[in-house]
Amino acid sequence: MSRGEEPLWRLAGSLHPAYAAVDWAATGLGEPRDWSPALRSTLALALETRFAMALFWGPDQVLLYNEAFVGLIADKHPAALGRPTRDVFPEAWDQIGPMLHSVVEDATPTWVVDAEVPLRRSGFLEECYFTFSYSPVRGPDGAVEGAVDIVTETTRQVVARRRLQVLTRLDQGLARVSSTAGLVDLAVRVLGADPGDLSEVEAVPGAVADPVVLESVGAPGEGTVARIALPVPDPRAPQQHLRVRLSDRLALDEDYVDFLRSLAGALQQALELMAARDSDRRLSEALQRSLLTRPAHGPTLQVAVRYQPAAEKARVGGDWYDAYVLPDGALAVMVGDVAGHDQHAAAAMGQLRNLTRGVAYSARLALPARVLSDLDRAMAGLGVDEVATAVLAVVEDGGPDGQLLHWSNAGHPPPVVVEADGSVRLLEDVPDLLLGLDPETRRADHRLRLRPGDTLLLYTDGLVERRDAALADGLAWLVATLEGWGDRDPEDLCDHLLTAVGQHEDDLVLLALRART
């Protein structure tokens, strides 16, 4: 029987001519009519299945395979058929050779999932991933004659998963940036950490005409440069773009280009979101500040106030301060915080601030505890369904010995006194219940004397609360930060605190009141 008449070849489908063209007598397998039953039956099984299968047979591990396997080795076919496996896959032999050895020599099957196996199958060394199993094939006497490989390529899935992870990290980071410079730095850092797809990433001057521009496109594996647009909020600002070098080990297919377009789209959306946040932030802050008027000063008192929104928020909130002169000449000062960070909280803050003014100004005797109790009842009666913390203090002129301070605390962080000699103490009486919970709760008044040069500090929790630290740690930090700042101008003291706290997670309000010397 001639080679062209071999019955096995009729099972090979489109590979029939390739099998018939091989000089099998010149291989380590010899003429097909002399092949062992194990080889013939295993090859027949492989040729008749739609799954990609290959055989590595005999001492030289001669390669035989079916139609489905051709798609995995591309340009290596048809020259690979009938050749020793080591000669067909020299670029991957250090990886697959030991695995085949263990199968043939030790009769031990092996399998891997999503293993990277580099292949030179399309003119360049390509990044490829496969899930495959090597199994021994035994003859009638039980001896291992060869190995069978059942394989599926997973390159597309592995690379797509990697690209999705890059896009996810980029989106997560972009959600936190607040400036164009921060956006550029983040893009370079995140994309530069993905050498699988982008081997070089740098921000360079100049605009690009489209979101993604490809240049220096050579044959696969020769390297391609892509330029990705970096949007800027102001067209008059200096233009930049990302210059990235694409992988030498991946074909520049539609999936690759779509990935680059997704990166450009994420950057554009981040800029639009950042611009919207910035606009909302400016509007919100303007609204907030419009509700917080300049404080009154007493003839023997100096008052400084600060309102600063959170570093990463573009929302109005419920923090407020107030300072106004009562009919009897005493000065009322207050700092409070309505629960929430939105327009609703800001509106509620405006209600409570004005309601407190009305209650305190009309009271015959403006004792802080009585004012807060009346405020609680007014909130319940008027349907102000909010919860808030606050410290209200009334300061009366005490003559040359300083000022008399009456204060009451409704669930708020404790006031701080910085004495003229620089010592600091927290007014740590246990605070009463928050406003808005129980209009019948009993509230306590506290008293102390502010001597000339002493400073009272009221503040909201944005100054001392941190997600990763206890409130006690924040209060200890505040005391340490204020030590030595006695008899100092309240404006300087407020600036000192804002510099010391740096970026903060919540809005904060400061009110510093100093008894003049």
Question: What does the model show?
Answer:
- The protein is an alpha+beta fold.
- Helices cover 33% and strands 25% of the residues.
- The chain has twelve helices and 21 strands.
- It has helices at residues 16-21, 37-47, 67-73, 85-88, 93-106, 155-174, 180-192, 254-291, 343-362, 368-381, 471-482, 490-501, and strands at 53-57, 62-65, 110-116, 119-120, 125-126, 129-138, 144-153, 198-205, 212-215, 225-230, 240-246, 301-308, 319-325, 331-338, 388-397, 403-410, 416-418, 424-426, 446-450, 455-459, 508-515.
- The protein has a five-stranded antiparallel beta sheet, with helices on both faces. Strands 12-21-20-17-18 form a five-stranded antiparallel beta sheet, covered by helices on one side. A five-stranded antiparallel beta sheet has the order 13-14-15-16-19.
- Strand 6 and strand 7 (144-153) form a beta hairpin.
- Helix 6 (155-174) packs antiparallel against helix 7, helix 6 (155-174) runs parallel beside helix 8 (254-291) and helix 9 (343-362) crosses helix 10.
- The longest helix is centred in the middle third of the chain and has 38 residues, at 254-291.
- The relative contact order is 0.07.
- The mean pLDDT is 88.
Which segments are poorly predicted (pLDDT under 50) over 5 or more consecutive residues?
A: none
Number of helices: 12
Main pleated-sheet profile: 5 strands, antiparallel
Tell me the total number of β-strands.
21
CA-atom Rg in angstroms: 39 Å
- Sheet/helix structural class: alpha+beta
The share of residues in extended strands comes to 25-35%
